[in-house]
Amino acid sequence: MDRDRQPPQPAVRPFVGVHMKCCHVYVRVYRNAAGDAYVGWCPRCAAQVRLEIVPEGGSRERFFEAS
Ligand SMILES: [Zn+2]
Predict the structure, then answer these.
(1) What is the C-alpha to C-alpha distance for residues 16 and 39, in angstroms, rounded to an integer?
(2) Ligand 1 mean position to 43 CA, how many Å?
(3) How far apart are CA 11 and CA 22, in angstroms?
(4) Region 30-36: what's the mean pLDDT?
(5) How far, in Å, is the centroid of ligand 1 from the Cα of 21?
(6) Strand 25-31 and strand 37-41: pairing?
């Protein structure tokens, strides 16, 4: 079994949608350079949102909420 094989990286940076509850705005959060988390900021109050990326067994959700 090729459990360690990674799928080809897409040409565009992956992102997830995050609803910032602090300001009730929706933002796209892009994957960081290290590829271990999605990192972004609230456009209104600059609160940081960070979503850790887990290789396996993680959430399959594409949308999140941040407080
Ligand atoms: Zn905010």
Answers:
(1) 10
(2) 7
(3) 32
(4) 91
(5) 7
(6) antiparallel
